Structure formats: C-alpha cells, structure tokens
C-alpha cells in the first residue's frame, strides 16, 4: 500500500498512520508531510521503526529548505517516481 503524508505530522492523525503502516508498505512525504523526513523529529523516529520504504518529494523538500537536512534513509523522488509508486501500489491512503 502507498501512504501519502501531505500534512505535517503534528497536524494530522499521525498515530493512526503509524497503526496502519505494515512492513513492505511505501510512504511518500509531500507538501508539509516532508517535515517527517527530518531526523530530529519524533515523527521520523517512529516511521523509521515501521519497516516501510520512505520517500520524499524533491520539489517540496527544496521549497521548504529541507533538502540538505533530511535523513539518508529517505529516498528523494520526483513526480515521475511518484507516478511509479502509485502504479506499483494500487491501494493508497492519503494522510
């Protein structure tokens, strides 16, 4: 399943997202969701332990000045990669 985190982890039901994540799922952070890609946040630490593949949209990281600050465990992707993730995962959930 592809989970897309569009809202800040501090402004959504992040605990529900964590409960829904299963090993092997993909999580794409975009818009304000890229805040969860910062390694010093409790959100990132919680995501890191879930056994899911973590992705963040480059344009949103750059727009917020986070590109040099995110964890090396995050795969930075573009819109073409976003489409590939959507094709790979027919089931999707937006947060």
UniProtKB/TrEMBL annotation:
This is Protein TusB. The gene is tusB. One of its GO terms (cellular component) is sulfurtransferase complex. One of its GO terms (biological process) is tRNA wobble position uridine thiolation. It holds the Pfam family DsrH. Keywords: Cytoplasm, Transferase, tRNA processing. GO terms for molecular function: transferase activity. It comes from the Bacteria. Part of a sulfur-relay system required for 2-thiolation of 5-methylaminomethyl-2-thiouridine (mnm(5)s(2)U) at tRNA wobble positions. The keyword tRNA processing applies. Heterohexamer, formed by a dimer of trimers. The hexameric TusBCD complex contains 2 copies each of TusB, TusC and TusD. The TusBCD complex interacts with TusE. It is found in: Cytoplasm. Transmembrane segments: none annotated. Belongs to the DsrH/TusB family. InterPro entries: DsrEFH-like (IPR027396), Sulphur_relay_TusB (IPR023526), Sulphur_relay_TusB/DsrH (IPR007215).
